[in-house]
Write a structure and sequence with these properties.
eight-stranded antiparallel sheet, alpha+beta, 23% strand, Jelly Rolls, Glycosyltransferase, 19 strands, Maltose phosphorylase, domain 3, 31% helix
Amino acid sequence: MRIYVPPVGPLRARLSPPVKIKQRLAPKAIITTPAGETVLDMGQNMTGWVSFRAKAPKGRRLSLYYGEILQDGCFYRDNLRSAKAEYHYISDGNEAEVEPAFTYYGFRYVKLEGFDGPRREDFTGCVIYSDLERTGYIKTSDERINRLFENALWSQKSNFLDVPTDCPQRDERLGWTGDAQVFSGTACFNMDCRAFFTKYLADMWYEQRRNGGRVPHVVPDAKGRRSPAEGGAVAWADAAVTIPWNVYLHYGDISILERQADSMAAWVDWVSAQKDWAGDTMHFGDWVALDNPRRPQARVGATDIGYLCAAYHYYTARITSSAMEKSGRRADAEKYALIAEKTLEELRREYFTPTGRLAVNTQTALVLALYMGLTPEPRKTLGELKERLWRDGDHLTTGFIGTPWLCMVLPPEQAYGLLLLEDYPSWLYQVKMGATTMWERWNSVMPDGHITPTQMNSLNHYAYGSIVEWMYRRMCGINPVEDAPGFARAIIAPQPDPTGTVKWAECELDTAAGKYKSAWRSEGERTVFELRIPFNCEAELRLPDGRVERLEAGEYKFEAAAPECDKREVIRNHGLL
């Protein structure tokens, strides 16, 4: 007999918002497949369950099976691995409203068995996620981009269930640190994630204290593994530094840095204590990148692991130094500034030639060199990245590490060119293939509609949805600043589409300081910009023609010459010109 033992210690308030039913969806259709199956199509990949009205003879078994995609028109769920994803109800002969308890599913399609003449009105899709307030809204003239934005938002909804999971449908549903790290900036634009990440980071620091500062691959460490190989992965464990910094930038709450300062320091110290940058651990590298020609289905990309580790060590040491300075720990700020400086010197000596050329010639390596400030020759490195893109057929090859910042470091011509591609690999390829959430792999579904034959394939994974941060920061141009976090002051630097494909874009962002608006529309040879700065805030407006304006609270309208498009910079395969 199991005896319940209550926890010891005083009760404490929960740190995170509760998980709730946030939306209810009616099925889009009830279909009969070529195999004779009866299947609900919810029209949207989602997380939660289907509630239903049961009216069946006593003893009748009513069954629901959940899946993400149809194959050849038939129900499919092999990508869920060992997850059963099913629910069974035995009728007592009375009419009842039925829904599961203590579980949830990731799905778009539900196969029904045992139902007599099911009707759409008898079923309701219950969408669950943490009770987070939405804060960011973006619309453009291009419905494909709008769908991409919604796909990223839906994947955030689907995976923000008390912890930031990687996927909601298969036999996993764990708080993978790498996925959360690369998406945290986008997440904070889309929703008020302050309390959500506060709880996650508290769990992370708890795990670090048990493991000498090392961050496990998943938080909470549900796997319970303690070997050196089960933590400390580059870009995954670095979540201990980048997530609290993003929370601070977006919400201006110094307490997040004060609470997490020891966690940030412990992680940087753990890396510093390793024999080399890669340490004694298993790294995921540039996860599911496409730059390994010998192994096209390889999970680890071609970018050198030692380079990635050194880059992130410099980047996180620099952030930790800034966090310590903000928290009033000046001695620690100097310590981590020195670690960053030493790491950068060693990285440049190891990976850059005397003339400033990067020895690791992958898109991701070049992107990190530009975004993190690793390169001694930014113009040369940008030229190398453009050349690398050309050699890669003007398509991205980046994985989880390189993708979030790829468009961030490119000039607008090339950033829009990559965004607007529809063939594989690209963001809009997913949209073209009918995706309603983000995929784990660039080719999760092949052009013929068949799911990629692999043991690891989720159709609801938010990592590549990090392109949405580029939409907020570059396309619409709203950026927080370090010296006035929480958007008390902002830099607004919108980048209209120089190719003319996207005619207009608008963003509203409900920040901790109030609601900002940034919109632009192309009108022939002129571009019109409309802005709103909230009460008691100020902004620096940077227009594409080089003009800079200092703005206080209020609404504004500006005009500027339409940005010129250098035809040599446009993605050649795009066919725009």
